[in-house]
Amino acid sequence: MILVVKHIGIEGLGLWEKVLKDKSLKYQVIQAWEEEVPTDPERYSHVLILGGPMSANEKEKYSFLSQEIDLIKNCINMDKPCWGCAWVPSL
Fold first, then answer.
1. Distance (Å, whole) CA 87 – CA 2
2. Angle at the Cα of 78 from the Cα atoms of 53 and 21, rounded to 5 degrees
3. Confidence band of 58 (pLDDT split at 50, 70, 90)
4. Interstrand relation of 46-49 and 27-31 (parallel, antiparallel or unpaired)
5. Domain assignment present for 56
6. φ, ψ at 86 (rounded to 5°)
7. Which domain range does residue 48 map to?
């Protein structure tokens, strides 16, 4: 199961959706502004973090970013594939 983290409601998965469906890959979409972002990636084979209008430096404005940063750190520590997270402050 692939975890997909979305940051904005009006945007979809873009080209990723076609890839996931063409390969018959199972995925779960978390809408970060509405749902708790899991910080433990253990149950997922990969993590895909989509873009959005916010900066990783805006944790005060977007409370879910702290959970997401923890998720990314845990992916790195577990050597779990994590796409879309090119830079995160304070790693």
1. 20
2. 55
3. confident
4. unpaired
5. yes
6. -75, -35
7. 2-83
- The tokens describing 49, both together, are 């973090």
- Which whole number is the average pLDDT over 3-31? 92
Backbone angles phi, psi at 16, to 5 degrees: -60, -35
Structural tokens at position 76: 């790195």
| pLDDT for position 85 | 59
**What residue type is assigned to position 88 of the chain?**
V
Interacting residues of 43 by C-beta distance below 8 A, sequence separation 6+: 1
Strands (E), 1-91: 2-6, 27-31, 46-49, 82-83
Residue 39's CATH number: 3.40.50.880
pTM value is 0.86
| Closest by CA position to 10, among listed 31, 27, 25, 26 | 31
Domain count, the chain: 1
* Most distant pair of Cα atoms in the chain: their distance: 38
Cα-trace Rg, the chain: 13
